[in-house]
Every structure is written in structure tokens, then in C-alpha cells.
Amino acid sequence: MSKRSFRFALLLATTTLAGAAAAQDTSVQLEQLSVEGAALGPAVGNNLSAGDGGTAATSGGGGGPSGITGYVARVATAATKTNTPLIDVPQSVSVVTREQLNDRNVQTLSEAINYVPGAISARSGFDPRFDQIFIRGFDVLTNQGIYRDGLRVIGSGFAYPKTEPYGAEALTILRGPASGLYGLGSPGGILDITTKRPVFVPFGEVQFQAGSFDRFQGNFDVGGPVPGSDGTMAYRLTGVRREAGTFIGLGTTDDQLYLAPAFTWKPSADTTFTFLSEFQVTNTPAATFFYNDPGFRVSNFYQGDPRFIGLDQTQYRVGYAFEHKFTPDLIFRQNFRHYGLFLVGKYVDINNINEARTVGTRDTGYIREGLVQQTLDNQLEARFTTGPVAHTVVGGVDYARYSRSQRVGFGLAPDLNLVTRNYGQQFIATPALGPASRQTQDQIGIYLQDQAKFGDFILTLNGRHDWVFQDNFATPDSAVSRQDNSAFTGRVGLGYVLAPGLVPYASYATTFTPQVGLDRNGQAFKPATGDQIEAGVKYLIPGTNIQAAFAGFDINQSSILVPDATNIAFQTAAGAVRSKGFEAEATANIAPGTNLTIAYTHVDIRFVNSTSFAGESLNGNRVSGIPSDTYASFLTYAFPPSSPLRGLQIGGGIRFIGTSFADDQNTVRNTAVTLYDALVAYDFAALDPKYRGFRAQINAYNIFDRNYTTCSFGFCNYNQPATVIGSLIYRW
Questions:
Q1: Name one GO biological process term (predicted).
Q2: Domains of the chain by start residue, with CATH
Q3: Residue 355 CB: number of other CB atoms within 10 A?
Q4: How does pLDDT run across 497-515, given as a tens digit for each residue?
């Protein structure tokens, strides 16, 4: 493999681990809020438009979580495609509510999961290019485990749609296999993003933010009923405009434009149609790494160059969520989305430094990529009883298709003077692009699930059969490499109501992931398959907004790709990994604006049968970059109205990231690190009611400026230093 090809592969590898992580009354739905509800005004830390999560146009299958008070959600749809209380789901589920996103002023999807058990980000250090997340040690991004409104967000190569958290109502993280309902995906779990949707109460919000690294950002979110529609139509428009640099400097940017119009038509109480759309442009550096010296040491020589650095991505989506209730117990839903993404990336690598450390030789890469996708899910939900057993049955047929094209080119860049560091002072030619490669994939799935309650027992049983058809074209004139797969997956789980709000459970679930390519015999790789055994207990303390959960899990994934021992130029689907561990989580809303979330995870993910590209056995080694232990907690406190400090809200977070190995050979460890975040906010209505809706907020991340690196796959990179963002907010 040439150095240029190796560098390109290294960039791809940083996004891949192939098979290896409101309103206080929960009964009120936002669209039912009356003048009395609107009169409550924006509580400290809340966004009235977020309500209790009831902005969903549909009650399930993408409708999102509900029954939300502060950081606590009681009901979610992602795990079952029906409105199911979290304590009734025989699998680990976490919800990041809008209030938590607001309090932490979350800027990226990766930041959003920083306080969720079982989930980590930043495995490759600072990297704003992708929403890279690992659940229970398995990559969610490249294994197509990210969903939006219950529909898969498909990505491949460099083309992965990015998520703007400000456009999200909530995030739901389902840990463990979900193939029994969703088809192919990561054995670690899925992350489902619920889009902000129209509500039938007028509201609005505008924000201005400024912060570290020349960050300037404006956000707005407005909506309500359409005048003259007699309460049958509502709209919402959400937007973000950001201009920002990064800690790297040298002209690197983190700019974004985001617009998300949405419209709901509700001609009757039984029928709802919601149109959802998005247009987003992001500009980030295509190279975020620093040259590595031998011994897993990161130098201070940035790989990129201001003259040849940008990763410019434009994406859009249009779709709808439709629901019709034939009767209260028979509901049809159809969710559809079309996504398009186009990107251009230019990067420079330092591939060698001379012994005197005065000159770095460099090469270049140029990428043009496009991806379009369509996803459609048809569901029918029925509720009925058979003798003493109450059933909630959902069945459906879904379809997903994507087509991706890519052209790449490689060239040489002038040497970099490491003494003067003449970044951006030399002309860098754009290399010629090679022929286009193309890939298409079609997936059809049929699924059926029954949630049966009899006495104190809760049985969840689902099954699904998928057919996946994939075509690969190396060049426009090359022969088609066709790959067809089919698989049956499912889940069975049993819970028992031991006491009010206390439910122990156990479950077994399976998963599969198609793999692209051919072995040395010219045969297509069989899919990677996996299964999980999970057991745990969930507790919602009666009469409170306090809930806790504990789970132990054991996941096995087999038939993953490893180098072929008989010919290392090829791969074979013979590898296996195993992830086992346990998680503990607690969330609480103690009072308006006062919330607590706690998460602890222990993960032991190892190669069971695998070899490195050098032919070394990795059996028994830990997968690199995945910490064994993590702990995170975030607490906010809003001073009560009787306090002299009324209007003030303070908060803080602790994130402990334990040790992990820097390479799959397990020769060097990443050191453990503890990071601290902080929040200070003030509601100006406490000074005078005429200032109602005005809020000032300061968020600080890594406040003690821990300068640390993270290594995985044997490559190391810096992480984000201390960052501060101030916000001025007006809500009405």
C-alpha cells in the first residue's frame, strides 16, 4: 500500500471500528397547552416550546419520548415503536431531554451523550467532522445505528449526515441490539433523534452566543398555530447560524447554517400529518490531526494547511410523519424521509519529518462525494385482550435505499518548514480526481412485535426478516459486484413488577450487519452477526420524578472482517469480539430547574478471534480506545422564589474517562482523565416581571483545561481544551 493510500485509509479508519459503542405535569401534551399553560412562562432552564416532549405528531414509531419532567422521561418509543414506559422495556434506554440539552448548551451530537451510560465519543480525539459515537464499545455511526424520528440515517465513506442538536426535541439511546425492529445495525445499540415539531401554542426563542475560539452564533425557534386555520394547522421554523474557529487555529473553521421548517395539519383528532425538512451547510477542517512521533506521542505539528483544508458539506432532508387512528386501539402510521448530502474535502498530510526536525514532507488528498437516501416505515398498531392477557401489537414493513458516489485524488504538497512553520504560504495544487466509484443498497424488512401483560409479568417478543441487496461499482466501466444478504433477528424480554415502580427484567436479542467486499475466493462476505444477553432492574420511585436503572450485558459479535492468514492482501469474515459489562444510571427532577443525572459504565470489549494486518494474533486483547470505566454526573440547582438569589441557576458536571489501550496490540495505555463542566444562568424576571423571558447563561467545558490526548488504532490526537460559551436568550 502506498503512503498516500495509507494516509487516506487512516483518515477513514478514524471513523470506523468494524465490528469492534418544560412542563411539570406529565399528563399534559404540549399541543393541548391552554392559555393557563402559556401563562406559566419560561421556567428557569426550560424552553416552553419543548414542553414535556409532546411535540410529536405521532404517538409512536418516531414520535419521540413523552412524560418529561426536567431531565426525567417516563415514556419512549425508540425501544418498541410504541408508547412504552421506560420501566416496561426489557432493555437499557436513556433519554436526553430538551431541558438537559439547554442546560448544557450542547453544540454537537457527540457532546449530547457525554452524560449517558454506555456511550462515549471522542475516541479519536477532537474531530468535528463526524458525529462519532460508541455504545458498549461498538461504533454506532459507521454501523448505521443513528436514527432520526425512527428512520435510519444512512452514511458511508466520508458521507455521514450531521445533526444539529438545537433542532432536536430529545435524544433516545437504546443500548444493545435493535435489529428485531430496525434491521441491520450496530450490536451496541441505536441513537434516535426526535426532531422539534410544530405545536398549537404560540412560542418563540432567540439566542445570541459568543465564546472561545472566535465563536459567534445565533439561534432561533418560532412557531404556533397558523392564523385562520381554526386550530388545524401549526408551523415551526428553527435555525442556527454559526461562525467559529477551532483551537487548532491556522484558519480552521467550525461554521454552520441550519434551517428546519416544519408544518403540521391536524384535520381531526384522529388524523395528523407533519411535514419535516432541513437544509444545512457545514464547514470544518478535513484534517484534524497532529503528526505522531514514535512511541504514541503527539507532536505540535498540525497535519493540515490553511491553503488546502476544508471539508464543506451540504445536506438536506424532506419527509413526513402521518398517523391515523381508525379506533383508539387501531392506529396506522407512515413515516418517510428523503436525505441528500454532498461534500468536498481537501486535506494535507505530513507523512515524514527529517531527523533534524526541520522539514516535513507532505502529500494531499481531494474527495468529492455524494449520497442520497430514502427511508419509509409503515406500521399498524393494535391493542386488544385475550382472556387475562393485554396485548400491544405492532407490525410493519419498511424500506431503505441509498446510493453513494465518490471520486478521490492524491498528490504532493510543498515541504513544510518546521522552523518557520510556513503554513498557508505556499501554493498547493489540487490533485486530479480518479474515476467515480458507486455503491447502492436496498433493504426491505418485515417485523412484528407483541407486548403482552398478564398479571405482574411483561413479555416483549419481536421478530424481523430483512433482505439486503448491494451493488458496488469500482469504476463506471467495471463489472458490478453484487452482494445479497438476508437475515432473521429478534428479541425476547420478560419483566416482572416486583413492587410499584420496581421492575427486574431479562432479555435476549440478535443483530446482523452486512459487510462490503469479496474474499480471496471472490465470494461476498457473509454478514457479521451478534447476540446479547441482558439482565437488570429499573425503579421509578412512586410519587417522585426520580428513576434509576442497573443492567449487566454480554454481547458477542462474530464473522467480522479480519486479515486472511493465508493471504494478507485479502480479508476473511472469521473474526469475533465480545463486550461484557454493566451500567448504572439515575435521573431526578427535584424541583423546577433543579435536576440530577448520574451514569456509570464498565465495559470489557475484547477480540475473541482476530489478527492484525501484520499477522499478529489479537485474541484476548482489548479493543483500543474504549475505556474500561466511565463515570459522569451533572447537577443543576435553581434558587427558589423565596431565596434572595432567586432567578439564579448554577450547575456542574464531572466526567471521568478511565484508561484504555492506545493500540489493538495493547502495548500502551491511554491515561485516565477527569473533566469538569460548569453552568451559571440568570432569569431576569427575578429583577422585574417586565424582563420575563430574558435569560443569560454561561457554560464552561473542561474548565481546568486538561491537556490530554486519546489514542486508538495506534494513532493519537489532541482533545478539546477549556471552552467557554456565553448566551443571551429571550423566550416568549
A1: siderophore transport
A2: 65-194 (2.170.130.10), 195-731 (2.40.170.20)
A3: 6
A4: 999 999 999 999 999 988 7
